[in-house]
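Troubleshooting: if your tokenizer reports a length mismatch, compare your output against this known-good record of 231 residues.
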Amino acid sequence: MRTLLLAALLVIAAAMPARAQDGLPPADRIILTVSEEAWVKTETARVIAQIKTLITSQSASEAAANPTAILDKVGIGHWYITGSNRQQTDTGYEQLLVVAETRLAQSILAGIHDRAKGVSEKGRTVQILAIDYSPSLAERELTAAQLRQAIYARAAAEAKSVAAQFPEQGFRVHQVQFQDGGVPTPMPARSVRARTMMVQADASGAESGDGQQVSERMTMTATVVIAAPGQ
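Known-good structure output:
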């Protein structure tokens, strides 16, 4: 009889850690996967421009030293210089190539190529390289914060529902772990590329640069752990 009881205790002891070894959660812990999605909207577009200046005189050099003043005539905004290269041409003159970008409202984009051509003159060429209608980083981060708040609300609602079913256990939200660090899932690369209009202005100036703002769908997923106190 003592041998049979000892054998039964050994079987129970061996079975107890098996649940944890199999990766199964404890009986008083509930694990859920929660996902939320939202649309990021934008009212602006990212514009990349290029100024190519042939340095032939002191006045031309002074004009080239302040490219943002020239770009403000194309579209008033906070222009940031992202590239600058000065080199000598085959004719012996120096050429300054400046690349800058900003975000402009849709209303400013109308006729932007014509304005770039209008501020161009002998020895200086202004060209719009690209117009990207996708949302800005700030707009994406704002939507990401809203998605996190939505997931927190879902987690609290789930915990409240579980606590109502098992009031004696005292279930609550134990952990919310965001996948990928809480960064929304990006759109497929093909869709992102489709939002960018790479423009090479020709002599006829056929491209107007006009387009439509686009919305970007974002999804966020988190693992929610609802557990009783002490878990």
